[in-house]
Each structure stands twice: as C-alpha cells, then as structure tokens.
Specification:
The chain is mainly alpha-helical. The chain is built from three helices and no strands. The protein is rod-shaped.
Length: about 130
C-alpha cells in the first residue's frame, strides 16, 4: 500500500540543485568542482551502454525461447504419434496371433476380422508416414 505520491525524478533533481545553489550562496557548501559532472556522465554512458547490451541479450533470449517452444511442441506431437503407433502395433500383433492360431486350427478368419486387421494395418502405415 502506498501512502505517499510517486516521486518525480526530474523534480527531485531540480529541488536538489536549488538547495545546493542556496547553500553555496550562503557559504555553507563550497562550489562543486567541474570534475563531478563528467564522472556522472561517464557512469551514465556506461550504464546506457550496458542497458543496450542487455536489451540485445533479452531480445536474443526471447527468440531462442520461442524457437525452443516450437521445437518442444513439435516433439510432443511426435511423442503422441509414437504412443499411438505402439498401441496400433499391439493391435496388429494381436491380429497376427489370432490368424496364426486360426491357421493352425485350419480355420479361416471371418470377413469382419479381416477388415478389422486391414484397418489396423492402414492406421499403422498412416502413423508411420506422419512420423517421417
């Protein structure tokens, strides 16, 4: 919770300059040497340079983050396809076991079973194509 109004920096600096001038005029403070301002300017220039460098790094990091996010989403999609492919592979293997067992019993598969097996094979092929 804020009890005081926000500080306006230019107003504070102007007030500080006026106070210094008054104190110098009264003889309480000695006049400031001309050396102080160039140091502040050097510091300010250094801060501005570092801020510009930091800004460039922030921009680069944002681009890299977006690229990684895109790659991660693509990889998650591929993982989903691989998971579904494993499920379909298990289904195809089950049909193969059934057909092998039927062959040993010299029994033929029904049309419905054959269609279901073909459907599983087609799903598997479609998933494999999506991974490429």
């Amino acid at each position: 919770r804020r009890f005081s109004p926000p500080v306006n920096i230019p107003q504070v600096q102007a007030l500080e300059n006026r106070l210094k001038e008054e104190l110098v005029a009264l003889g309480i403070l000695e006049p400031a040497e001309s050396k102080a301002e160039p140091e502040e300017d050097e510091i300010l220039a250094e801060l501005q340079q570092k801020q510009a460098e930091l800004s460039a790094v922030v921009e680069y990091n944002g681009q890299q983050r977006q690229a990684l996010l895109s790659l991660a989403r693509a990889e998650m999609g591929r993982q989903d396809i691989r998971k579904r492919l494993q499920e379909v592979d298990a289904e195809v293997m089950e049909w193969l076991r059934r057909f092998t067992a039927n062959r040993q019993k010299k029994k033929s598969a029904s049309r419905k079973e054959k269609e279901a097996a073909w459907k599983a094979l087609e799903q598997r092929e479609a998933l494999c194509q999506r991974l490429l």
